[in-house]
Design brief:
Order of helices and strands: EHHHHHEH
CATH class: Mainly Alpha
CATH topology: 434 Repressor (Amino-terminal Domain)
Structural class: mainly alpha
CATH superfamily: lambda repressor-like DNA-binding domains
Number of helices: 6
Strand order of the largest sheet: 1-2
CATH architecture: Orthogonal Bundle
Low-confidence stretches: none
Amino acid sequence: MLKLNVLELLKKKGKSKYWLFIQLDMTYTNFNSIVTNKTQSIKYSNIEKFCEILECEPNDLFIKIEDNSDSELTSCISK
């Protein structure tokens, strides 16, 4: 599963979540859903904005984490 790493990037830059929100010019509801990984999709234009503001590449924005529910399902099936 992919997750956005925005909060960690902000921490490294010494910037706040509020600072980023002001820079992005989007509704707080949408912004918060994106940065807290509560959204199922993100527009390319938003990825581009994040990269410009945070001075990073798309690869820096995302981290891959293991989804335990998938491994649990696999172990149940193999039993």
